[in-house]
Amino acid sequence: MKICELLKQDEPTFSFEFFPPKNYSSILELGINIGQLLKLNPSFVSVTYGAGGSTQEASFKLTDYINNKIGLTTMAHYTCVNATREKVAEDLEYFHEINIENLILLRGDPPKGETKFANESGEFHYASELIEYASALDMFCIAAAGYPEKHPESPSVEGDIYYLKYKVDKGVDFIVTQLFFDNQYYFDFVKRARAAGIEIPIIPGIMPITNFRQIKRFTEMCGATIPQTLVEKLTPYQDDLKKTYEIGVEFAINQCRELLDHGVPGLHFYTLNKSRATIDIFSSIK
Ligand code: FAD
Questions:
Q1: Which of 3.40.50.11270, 3.30.1060.10, 3.20.20.220, 3.30.70.20 would CATH assign to domain 3-285?
Q2: Mean pLDDT, to the nearest integer, of 181-195?
Q3: Sign of the CA dihedral 45, 173, 106, 267?
């Protein structure tokens, strides 16, 4: 099923993101958590590619398994990292062969310790180039990333939207955003996007806070802000995972409710391969 079709329906989509597990125990854990999340009947799930040092093979295998063995509509993440035209052609053909109809096409991040993205093959430098290539094949529903607080490398919000529009015009069907905690960033981002002529659905990306130290690391990397009031609530409980969970899930429930009240086209949960927080949020908002 193409996600573009799901997005034409009146109801918002609910989707979950997973990453390929690295060892035996995390494979088991992911299996159990996917089993739990299946009960929520998600509109689609997505599988990351190369993020956090995972291998392409693991990503492809998990994508194939979830799409074809579990039978959930799956969106494969795919990046420009080490991409040559030949490799991209082969990989996209592989996705087509395993019945993957949905891709989120990304640039990828520079290797650890480097600040500039340089594709050694010299062939794909920005997500827009991958999107142009894949869109010409006319086989996939294509998503791209958007940044409510701008991409960390963008010098300004105006420049960020300029290149987002450029990317969208190459053949993007919908946008999934980077995580954010203050909904105002999302509302302003959508306003800027619409003013720039971007008309496609923009699905907010939600990350429930269950571990404050981990979230601080993530937000430092991706340039998202944790609202000061939330920092003040969480700081006294940095080492108390139970209390952090309570505060984080309550915050996410309110965040999701407000987004749904504003008519968002869907909610995309960064699950971190866990299920409990997403299930608790779901049971409160559905
Ligand atoms: P681009 O759209 O190419 O933009 C990158 C930067 O270049 C931006 O600052 C943009 O403004 C600028 N830019 C774009 N075009 C031009 C141009 N022509 N000239 C000059 N500047 C330009 N990473 C992974 O490795 N694996 C994943 O699975 C993954 N999944 C993700 C899913 C989501 C929903 C999100 C939000 C991010 C994900 N990422 C993933 C992280 C992503 O790869 C990084 O954020 C990366 O730094 C940028 O990717 P992009 O596709 O947004 O890049």
A1: 3.20.20.220
A2: 98
A3: negative
Report how far apart, in Å, the C-alpha atoms of 29 and of each of 108, 164, 274 are: 26, 36, 8
218 lines ligand 1 (CB under 6 A): no
**Integer Cα distance of 237 and 233 in angstroms:** 8
Question: Ligand 1 pocket check: which of 19, 63, 107 to mutate, most ligand atoms within 8 Å of Cβ?
Answer: 107
Q: For 96-109, write each residue's pLDDT tens digit.
A: 999 999 999 999 98
DSSP-based helix, strand, coil % in the chain, nearest 5: 50, 15, 35
* The model scores a pTM over 0.85: yes
Q: Is the CB of 109 under 6 A from ligand 1?
A: yes
